[in-house]
Design a protein that fits this description.
single chain, binds adenosine-5'-triphosphate, 2 domains, binds magnesium ion, 16 strands, alpha+beta
Length: 418
């Protein structure tokens, strides 16, 4: 038997129902918030991720799926969605058109990680990016939109952790202060953080091991190293969040793993127990330098990404998730009735009625059971005798009431009663 690769999974049964529910709500929300759908390749040049996500990030140092194709090209399975969107924005010269562009994507990502609760090697991220606006109202929308979406899916007690990394200059000043502060303590840090100390010291702040230690709790705060412009900008973001009634907490230790962030960064955390340590369901931030870094014109941007598997996992704690009931199930016995069933099913489906019928030669009794298993609301029971006089029997599966309907009126009848 061939089994699936480690860290991948099949979306079937209840998982499939939950995923579809999430995906539909995503499409619905994005339409109302005016985001355009974008789809970019699942593999891109390896260089794209080195130049965007960053050489010192966890993703690039140990998580990417890199490979050479038969033409010797160096490629990488995308570990996140932003780099591809920005590559496309530049390559398709979208910066020349009307801005901002508001995009959303929803697709699989690949990271070579240790699989566990809410952590897979192939996983799905939904994310949005607003390209071409530095307005703090954009920051507030990028945070409030997923927050409201998660509420709609049943999440309660969501909390936003938000921080301000400031401009490159603000961050460089802070980096120096942090390095000076940590230098005498370097031997007390975990082995990962000892490496981070040289390449990316800010990442030490949100280390899962060292983050709890006194040395880090007493470390200088990045918020004290911001220019007046940056501090005022952050205040404006928080003010908008207050007006939008979003529950947030300023946390000066949030840095995020990707190297390209500046100014606002945030995480949306759920205290749903089932998630355990994997309780960050969405994360994002502003990245005003990335477009330029990848060869485009200076363009301020902000986005977030969220993992659908973690959302789905949490949904197990909300309500019972059931497959949507079928509007109608059609029953037949002989070939003449079957032909009618097939045609009727097509007409009803085109009219927006969900319909199915048997294709395994079941007895009429088993077809009734199958209709119940699908929670069918109406039953169409075809029989040759009725068909001769142009009639079709419809039964309400709940009240068990039966009616004979004129063949020519059956579609209208089902549409208005289904
Ligand atoms: P973590 O700290 O949990 O590793 P991260 O910082 O790597 O998260 P991001 O790169 O910001 O996460 O990705 C955003 C979201 O994507 C996460 O909050 C999570 O919901 C989801 N995600 C990230 N990696 C995985 C994975 N390996 N499996 C499933 N979901 C993931
Ligand atoms: Mg990670």
């Amino acid at each position: 038997m061939i089994i699936k690769p480690k860290g991948t999974y099949d979306v079937i049964d209840k998982e499939a129902v939950k995923m579809q529910r999430i995906n539909r709500l995503i499409d619905y929300f994005c339409e109302f918030y005016n985001y355009e759908y974008i789809r970019t390749p699942i593999f891109e040049s390896k260089e794209l991720f080195h130049r965007s996500v960053g050489d010192s990030s966890d993703i690039v140092t140990k998580e990417t799926y890199d490979f050479k194709d038969r033409g010797d090209r160096e490629l990488t399975l995308r570990p996140e969605g932003t780099a591809g969107v920005i590559r496309s924005f530049i390559e398709q010269k979208m910066y020349g058109g009307s801005l901002p562009r508001k995009f959303y994507y929803n697709g699989t990502m690949y990271r070579y990680e240790r699989p566990g609760n809410g952590r897979n090697r192939e996983f799905t991220q939904f994310g949005v990016e607003i390209l071409g606006s530095n307005d703090p109202a954009v920051d507030a929308e990028i945070i409030s939109m997923p927050y409201r979406l998660f509420e709609e899916l049943g999440f309660k007690d969501l909390n936003v952790k938000i921080n301000n990394l400031g401009s490159r200059e603000d961050r460089d000043k802070y980096r120096e202060a942090l390095v000076n502060y940590l230098k005498p303590h370097i031997n007390e840090l975990c082995s990962d953080c000892q490496k981070r100390f040289d390449v990316n010291p800010l990442r030490i702040l949100d280390c899962k091991v060292d983050g709890e230690r006194e040395i880090l709790k007493n470390a200088p705060s990045i918020l004290d190293y911001q220019s007046e412009e940056s501090t005022n900008r952050f205040k404006k973001v928080l003010e908008y969040l207050n007006y939008l009634d979003i529950d947030y907490e300023v946390d000066d230790k949030i840095v995020r793993g990707l190297d390209y962030y500046d100014y606002t960064v945030f995480e949306i955390v759920s205290d749903t127990e089932i998630l355990g340590g994997a309780n960050t369901i969405a994360a994002g931030g502003r990245y005003n330098n990335l477009v330029e870094q990848l060869g485009g014109p200076s363009t301020p941007c902000m986005g977030f990404a969220c993992g659908l598997e973690r959302i789905s996992l949490a949904m197990d704690e909300f309500e019972e998730i059931n497959k949507r009931p079928l509007d109608c199930y059609i029953m037949y016995v002989n070939e003449e009735e079957k032909l009618k069933a097939i045609m009727l099913a097509q007409d009803l489906r085109i009219s927006g009625v969900s319909v199915d019928y048997d294709t395994t030669g079941r007895s009429l009794k088993s077809q009734f059971k199958e209709a119940d298993r699908n929670h069918a609301e109406l039953l169409i029971i075809l029989n040759s005798e009725d068909l001769k006089s142009g009639l079709i029997t419809v039964k309400d599966n709940l009240t068990k009431e039966e009616k004979k309907i004129d063949e020519n009126e059956i579609i209208d009848y089902i549409v208005s009663n289904g």
